[in-house]
Design goal:
Blueprint (H helix, E strand, L loop, with lengths): L8 H51 L23 H10 L3 E2 L2 H10 L24 E2 L5 E7 L2 E7 L14 E7 L6 E2 L5 E4 L5 E4 L22 H6 L16
Antiparallel strand pairs: 1-2, 2-3, 3-4, 4-5, 5-6, 7-8
């Protein structure tokens, strides 16, 4: 007579329990890794599109930086809608201007690099505080601002409603200094802080000095992370890639 051996119910339940525990331990890490990979791919795509558009406008002969003096600002530095910016937007072809309500909702939820606070207004790029911010055909956001002696370019690779809407994760800043045709990742920015009466100043304290750090207390921490995203290096750990060390 043949005897068939098998697992008892208890053994099956124990095995399933072990599999469940292992899955619970590894699944979040796998999901997080996949999310970071998606952010990396989206960044490379948005950067390539903007860089290509920038070079096309340069080739068309438009100067990057042109002063536009006004009675209010005789220095002519701030310009929310320079000719170069308009040409950049035209290269994206199908775009829609972000409404005032969308802008308000977005800025309420946008976060800094370590997601510890709501993102405040960067002094120079003034992302989403300008008159011009557009949704492109692939859902990303592009905004261009002439200020602080340069033309500033900010994009959100994931757009208005798909997170994380955080500096250094899907929000990145580039700039082109006046009298140049260079397109560079932002390596400096100042944090604007305002009190309840609307009086504003720049926060340049030591704890807010770094703008791409896992310890910075700046509300615009992440504003200079494009420098590290481009070369794919973690700012505080040389053994990791930029995307691996995202907080």
């Amino acid at each position: 007579m043949f005897k068939f051996k098998g697992f008892t119910l208890a053994e099956v339940l124990i095995t399933l329990g072990i599999i469940g525990v292992v899955a619970a331990m590894t699944l979040p890490a796998l999901i997080q890794k996949q999310q970071k990979k998606e952010l990396e791919v989206a960044f490379k795509k948005s950067y390539a599109t903007l860089y290509s558009s920038f070079n096309q406008v340069i080739a068309d002969g438009y100067p990057v930086y042109v002063l536009n003096p006004t009675e209010e600002r005789p220095d002519g530095d701030p310009n929310y809608n320079s000719e170069f910016a308009q040409q950049i937007y035209n290269k994206y072809r199908k775009i829609r201007k972000i409404t005032s309500k969308e802008k308000i909702d977005y800025t309420k939820n946008a976060r800094n690099f370590n997601k510890s606070s709501t993102m405040s207004s960067p002094r120079c790029s003034q992302y989403m505080y300008t008159d011009n911010a557009f949704i492109t055909s692939d859902g990303s956001i592009i905004s261009v601002m002439q200020n602080c002696g340069a033309l500033w370019f900010t994009f959100d690779t994931n757009g208005l409603y798909k997170g994380p809407n955080a500096l250094g994760h899907d929000i990145f800043i580039f700039y082109s200094p006046k009298n140049t045709t260079k397109f560079l990742p932002a390596d400096k920015e100042s944090e604007v802080t305002c009190d309840e009466d609307g009086n504003c100043d720049y926060n340049n304290t030591e704890e807010a000095k770094d703008k791409c750090s896992n310890t910075s207390k700046s509300n615009i921490n992440g504003a200079t992370c494009a420098v590290y995203a481009i070369i794919d290096k973690c700012p505080w750990d040389e053994t990791k890639t930029y995307w691996e060390c995202l907080p």
